[in-house]
């Protein structure tokens, strides 16, 4: 999980947006609302994935912030580069790429073609993977946006009118139908869902 400083989230109290921003700030705002007698359930969503974020609200607002700061996990360092068997040894100064060895099962004709490529099978496979990543980048971004939006919708708008129709419009890429179906939803839920869906309709 991202650190409480870099992860951005949105907290909802019932159908109302309570706070949006860095996790630590949102958590403190949610804690203040709870201490102030907020009776509606408070849910905190990751702004990118719409996964629910669990926060321990025990103690004071300072306690909440300190626990979040203490739970921050440093980014793991890249693993040392591992020389693939089919790659010739390189001289000093080769950059460490964080290469990880894994077993790949292919037909003999695939191995024959890969081994005939400049640099050997590993280099050829990396190039193929990178090319596929670039070719599918738009579709992957759209799919992730759809999934994040639907995850939020299911949690916050499952009982709203037009939910099923809006879901179909989201995955069909029908922005006009989408806008029509969510028009009657509570303002904050509608606006947040619309923001999440933007990349799905791009």
The counted number of beta strands is 3
Uncertain regions: pLDDT < 50 for 5+ in a row?
74-91
Provide the gyration radius in Å.
Answer: 23 Å
Structural class: mainly alpha
Helix content class: 40-55%
What separation lies between the terminal Cα atoms? 27 Å
Q: Which outline best applies? A: flat
Mean pLDDT: 85
| Percent of sequence in beta strands | 5-15%
Strand order of the largest sheet: 2-1-3
Biggest sheet character = 3 strands, antiparallel
Question: What's the total helix number?
Answer: 8
SSE arrangement, N to C: EEHEHHHHHHH
Task: Give an overview of the whole structure.
This protein has 202 residues and is mostly helical. Helices cover 48% and strands 9% of the residues. The protein is built from 8 helices and 3 strands; from the N terminus they run E-E-H-E-H-H-H-H-H-H-H. Strands 2-1-3 form a 3-stranded antiparallel sheet, with helices on both faces. A hairpin with a 2-residue loop joins strand 1 and strand 2. The longest helix has 20 residues, at 137-156. It is flat, with a radius of gyration of 23 Å. The protein starts with 7 loop residues before the first strand and ends in a 5-residue tail after the last helix. Residues 74-91 have low confidence and may be disordered.
């Amino acid at each position: 999980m991202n650190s409480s400083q870099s992860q951005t989230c949105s907290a909802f109290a019932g159908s109302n947006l309570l706070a949006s921003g860095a996790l630590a700030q949102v958590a403190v705002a949610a804690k203040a609302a709870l201490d102030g007698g907020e009776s509606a359930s408070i849910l905190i969503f990751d702004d990118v994935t719409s996964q629910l974020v669990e926060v321990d609200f025990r103690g004071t607002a300072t306690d909440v912030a300190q626990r979040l700061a203490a739970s921050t996990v440093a980014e793991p360092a890249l693993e040392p580069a591992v020389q693939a068997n089919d790659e010739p040894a390189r001289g000093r100064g080769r950059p460490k790429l964080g290469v990880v060895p894994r077993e790949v099962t292919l037909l003999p004709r695939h191995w024959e073609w890969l081994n005939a490529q400049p640099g050997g099978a590993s280099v050829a496979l990396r190039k193929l993977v990178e090319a596929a990543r670039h070719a599918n980048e738009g579709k992957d971004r759209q799919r992730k946006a759809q999934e994040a939006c639907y995850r939020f919708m299911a949690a916050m708008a499952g009982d709203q009118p037009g939910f099923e129709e809006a879901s179909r419009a989201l995955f069909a890429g029908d922005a006009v139908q989408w806008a029509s179906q969510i028009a009657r939803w509570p303002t904050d839920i509608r606006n947040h869902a619309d923001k999440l869906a933007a990349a799905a309709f791009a």
